[in-house]
Amino acid sequence: MKFTVDQIATMIQGAVEGDGTQHITGFDKIEEGKSGSISFLSNPKYESYLYDTEATAVIVAADLDLKSPVKSTLIRVKEPYVAFTILLQKYQEMTAKRETGIQVTAHVAGGINVGKDLFVGHLAFIDANSSIGNYTSIYNHVSIGKNVQIGDNCIIYPGVVIYNDTVIGNNVIIHANAVIGADGFGHAPQADGTYKAIPQLGNVVIEDDVSIGANATIDRATMGSTLIRKGVKLDNLVQIAHNVEIGANTAIAAQTGISGSTKIGENCLIGGQVGIAGHISIAPKTIITGQSGVTKSIKTPGQTMGGFPATNNVDNLKRSALIRQLPELFEKINKIK
Question: Which stretches make up the UDP-3-O-[3-hydroxymyristoyl] glucosamine N-acyltransferase non-repeat region domain (predicted)?
Answer without folding.
Answer: 23-89
